[in-house]
DNA sequence: AACGGTTCCAACCGCCCGCTA
DNA sequence: ATAGCGGGCGGTTGGAACCGT
């Protein structure tokens, strides 16, 4: 079908934003909130395309943005999430508070790609550059990974089932769960279910129930990497894997799969 | 200081998807 | 069922900043 242009190109500014334009955009959004980007430029007195305003706000002006260098932990998380999700930058950004999809995309292309190449890893497949035995390598996974893979398969079946019921496509913006089975077995699949703050609250409640006291989660656990080597608190994984919520058999209700329809779109935080 | 090559990232572009009439 | 619209996404680009000679 034909499409009208998103804005009147002839009368819009392009290129770098001026301080005055930034101020106008910030003032307008503070007063009226986000949304209706097409009409925003006119209402705010900006000679900009609505899309351009949205990008400027989301990628640069938003007050909750975290500026500055990426930490080593963020690096590793991005690599793990990329191995799971591929170039779904918005989904990856959803797991990194204060980071934007554009920022992560740029960082990936400029730093992490090179970092992985220097490690001898193909950035697109996350496998060794000269790897010809990945299947064999996968067969050597430990028991924990096997459990996770089994669980991932369960999730995938559930998703497929739901998608079939609803007549939905299994690709497109949806997360491809089977990738997890092969590439990133230690990444908590809960990341596909709920927003981070909710997850953190749930984990905290779980800890309090288990220990009878309030304890803080380490950075890795707060990001859903309970099985990661980066986990410094070392308690959530033990609770989840050995306690109230087994990841095998019928015990994966901690993800809400028994009681709720899984919704890929809940990944999208923005 | 001047120059050329490289890196980095803000911004743009075109396409896709969901919603609505 | 279909067309149109608005919003969002991933890929790409242009130019500023940086670096080495």
TrEMBL record:
It is found in: Nucleus. GO terms for cellular component: nucleus. It comes from Senna tora. The keyword Transcription regulation applies. The keyword Glycosyltransferase does not apply. This is Myb-related protein 308-like. Residues 157-169 have a biased composition (Basic and acidic residues). Keywords: DNA-binding, Nucleus, Repeat, Transcription, Transcription regulation. It holds the Pfam family Myb_DNA-binding. InterPro entries: Homeodomain-like_sf, Myb_dom, Myb_TF_plants, SANT/Myb. Residues 9-61, 62-116 form the HTH myb-type domain. Residues 120-141, 155-177 are annotated as: Disordered. It comes from the Eukaryota. The lineage of its organism: Eukaryota, Viridiplantae, Streptophyta, Embryophyta, Tracheophyta.
């Amino acid at each position: 079908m034909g499409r009208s242009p998103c804005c009147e190109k002839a009368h819009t500014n392009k290129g770098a934003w001026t301080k005055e334009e930034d101020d106008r955009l910030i003032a307008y959004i503070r007063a009226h909130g986000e949304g209706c980007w097409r009409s925003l430029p006119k209402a705010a007195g900006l000679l900009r395309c609505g899309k351009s305003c949205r990008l400027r706000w989301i990628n640069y002006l938003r007050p909750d943005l975290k500026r500055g260098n990426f930490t080593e932990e963020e690096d590793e998380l991005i690599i793990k999430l990329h191995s799971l999700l591929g170039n779904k930058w918005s989904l990856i950004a959803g797991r990194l508070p204060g980071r934007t999809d554009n920022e992560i995309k740029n960082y990936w292309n400029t730093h992490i790609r090179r970092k992985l190449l220097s490690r001898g890893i193909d950035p697109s497949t996350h496998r060794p550059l000269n790897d010809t035995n990945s299947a064999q390598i996968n067969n050597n996974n430990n028991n924990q990974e096997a459990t996770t893979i089994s669980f991932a398969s369960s999730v995938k079946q559930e998703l497929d089932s739901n998608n079939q019921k609803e007549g939905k496509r299994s690709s497109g913006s949806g997360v491809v769960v089977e990738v997890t089975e092969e590439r990133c077995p230690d990444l908590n699949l809960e990341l596909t279910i709920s927003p981070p703050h909710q997850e953190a609250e749930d984990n905290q409640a779980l800890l309090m129930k288990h220990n009878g006291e309030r304890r803080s989660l380490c950075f890795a656990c707060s990001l859903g990497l309970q099985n990661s080597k980066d986990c410094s608190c070392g308690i959530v994984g033990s609770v989840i894997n050995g306690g109230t919520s087994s990841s095998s058999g019928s015990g994966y209700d901690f993800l809400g799969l028994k009681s709720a329809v899984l919704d890929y779109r809940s990944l999208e935080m923005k």
